[in-house]
Amino acid sequence: MGVNAQKKITSKPAKPATENKTAKPTKQETMDWIGGKMKENLAGKLGDFRHFVSYSNGIFVYKKEMKMNEWYFTTIDLNTVKGMNDEYSKDFYVTGKKLVNTVLEANEYGTEQDFLSISGPNYNDYAAPFSFTADQALVERLKKAFATLIEYNATKKGSNEKF
């Protein structure tokens, strides 16, 4: 066998170590995903429907008819989400200062709440505009998404602060 008849060995290039298929989503991607699921799962019963109005940059707005041609507009600001229930609770809710704001159409001021029920028995009777409870796989993904969002929204320590 001659020198030219030897088999050529080809090696596959190694994938870069920095490539990560499960990269953490950005804050905007996280809020957009949560906002999309909120839109898909607005709850309501006959005669008491919630209607999607808009979503932009973490601000989710829906409306609900109070009486004939009078609407309540509710704004949920995902940028303010700073906490959620503990991991052992059956009641899944998120918290944030002025997280939910509901205003009667044409009024300047409304009611503000710091809690929003996402899934579960809603023991504390928080606002619960979504129907996520029936899909437990989605609820688990929402818990992960909200935990990621809470990390992004966490108050950062100042340069002169010790704690």
Give a description of the structure:
The chain is α+β, with helices and mostly antiparallel strands and 163 residues long. The chain is built from two helices and seven strands, in the order αβββββββα. Strands 1, 2, 3, 4, 5, 6 and 7 form a seven-stranded antiparallel sheet that branches. The relative contact order is 0.15.
Using the alpha-carbon principal axes, give the shape. globular
**Element pattern in H and E:** HEEEEEEEH
- Chain oligomer state: single chain
First-residue to last-residue Cα separation: 74 Å
How large is the radius of gyration?
23 Å
**Beta-strand fraction estimate:** 25-35%
Residue stretches low in confidence (pLDDT < 50, at least 5 long) are none
Q: Helical region count? A: 2
Total strands: the figure is 7
Q: Level of helix content?
A: 10-25%
